[in-house]
Amino acid sequence: MARYTGAKCKLCRREGMKLFLKGERCYSSSCAIERRPYGPGEHGRRRGRKPSDYKLQLREKQKVRAIYGVLERQFRLYFAEANRRKGATGENLFNLLEKRLDNVIYRLGFAPSRASARQLIRHKHVLINGDVCDIPSRQVRVGEVLAIRAKSQNVPQVVQSLKDNAKRDRLPFVEADVKKLEGRLLAEPQLSDLPIPIQENLIVELYSK
Questions:
Q1: Which H or E run contains 80?
Q2: pLDDT average, residue stretch 152-179
Q3: pLDDT per residue as tens digits for the range 30-74
Q4: pTM for the whole thing?
Q5: How does 168-186 read in b/e, with b if 16+ C-beta sit within 10 Å?
Q6: Is the Cα dihedral 94, 96, 97, 102 positive or negative?
């Protein structure tokens, strides 16, 4: 499976904001944005000219791709599906991204990052309605019960994530029982509920050209 293997902290520095890609490190003084609040590379400190509309659109799309850990082809497929559905394309796009299994496991607090959530899923530590699921991109339906397998509840990523749970944003569309290590999607995710500001209109404009 293709995936991004570069330095995750560079992605945050390039966007000039925390994207919470490295779990607990993002909440500590070791966070790259705290230590080096400028872009990566030898020209990172330079003040550039006013960005063009295209650059603003591209950067917003790249930011969202980095947050959810999807590659360009995957992202285009999500956009095409969002465009086919009824309603606002931007809202539909984030509904699809938020309902990915790896993202929901992360939102429930069972993994410190989406990358860790994907690893847990690939290693068959995650159950959906009592059955093992090893597909990170699987769309979670409202009401489905997600859980960490009983024999997997001492996996280091899960234990560390539960310790750091208090630092995480509580979102209204998910509900977690940390004692049983299970949770569910309560409602369709809304763009307005997300903790990181996203301008979905820029992405729609970029792909509508």
A1: helix 72-84
A2: 84
A3: 565 555 665 665 555 666 678 788 988 998 999 899 889 899 999
A4: 0.81
A5: beebebbebeeeebbbbbe
A6: positive
Whether the pLDDT of residue 100 is over 90: the answer is yes
The per-residue pLDDT for 123 is 95
Instruction: Find, among 93, 100, 98, 26, the residue nearest to 60 by Cα.
Output: 93
Chain centroid, CA 5 distance in Å: 16
**Contact of 190 with 173, CB cutoff 8 Å:** yes
- List residues bridging with 126 in a β-sheet: 148
As given in the structure block, the two tokens for residue 150 are: 């009983």
Matching residue, tokens 């990566």: 40
Question: How far, in whole angstroms, is CA 164 from its chain's centroid?
Answer: 17
If you search the block for the tokens 């369709």, which residue do you land on?
188
The shares of helix, strand and coil residues in the chain, as percent rounded to the nearest 5, are: 45, 10, 45
Handedness of CA 9, 15, 18, 19 (dihedral sign): negative
Contact partners, residue 162, CB within 8 Å, separation at least 6: 109, 110, 178
Length of the chain: 209
DSSP for 32-70?
A: HHHH--S-SSTTTTS--PPPPHHHHHHHHHHHHHHHHT-
pLDDT of res. 185: 94
Cα distance between residue 8 and residue 5, in whole Å: 8
Q: Are strands 145-148 and 182-185 parallel, antiparallel or unpaired?
A: antiparallel
